Amino acid sequence: MMLKKLRRLMGSPAVEQRTVEMAGAPVTYTLKRSNKRRSIGLRIDDRGLTVAMPLRASEKWLNSVLQEKAGWVVEKLESWRAKKPVPPQWADGEPVLFRGETFRLRIVPGLFDAPPQLHGGQLVIHVSGADSPETVEKIAEQWYRREALQLFVECAQHFAPLMNVKPREIKLSAARTQWGSCTARGTVRLNWQLVKMPLHLIDYVVVHELAHLVELNHSAAFWRVVGAACPDYAKLRRELRKWSPATG
Fold this sequence. Notes:
- This protein has 248 residues and is an alpha/beta fold.
- It has helices spanning 2-10, 59-68, 70-83, 133-163, 199-211, 220-229, 233-240; strands at residues 15-22, 25-34, 41-45, 48-54, 95-98, 101-109, 117-119, 122-127, 169-173, 180-182, 187-191.
- Strands 1-2-4-3 form a 4-stranded mixed beta sheet, covered by helices on one side. A 4-stranded mixed beta sheet has the order 5-6-8-7, with helices on one face.
- The protein is globular and about 65 Å long.
């Protein structure tokens, strides 16, 4: 009996990629099956459409839900694509973000060992004559990371005493789905791409993670801790959703 059940479970992949026509347009989505679900749920974010469904739900039910929600799905996907920032091409003159401001990338041949500098609305990066866009991106990322760590430490030093907490360590992360995290041992990790965002959003994320040193959850008590240091956190949370860790 147990072997038969196991075979049934193995017959359907837990996660798979599919494509379906919705409102006259092909839509690729991620299908996730779970024996804990009792209904079919749809979520749209920067990664596209994700459909979660009960493990043994029928294809007929799935297709019915997808077609019923087709108009909504296509509209939301188009909205996400419209607001998704275009990644820099790392060419001279391209716009780059830093602390919520837009600068122009200025690539200067020679003086390869000179560090990147902000000057007159430009991020100046010195390269050798044959350097590729990939090399420019690597130099820029190293600069971003140095600036990010310095800024995050300063923010934590400002807010930690106000919140009566003491993080053990501030580290950088490169997570594709999170702006920050906090361990039970007190290590706070913050996504280096945060440094591209406005300072008030950086402050909010820092406060959010420091609050986990008091409440390691997202309970009402946790949000009271956040609200004490950042009263307009609800507004900032909504603004933060316009950004994606995957694209910066």
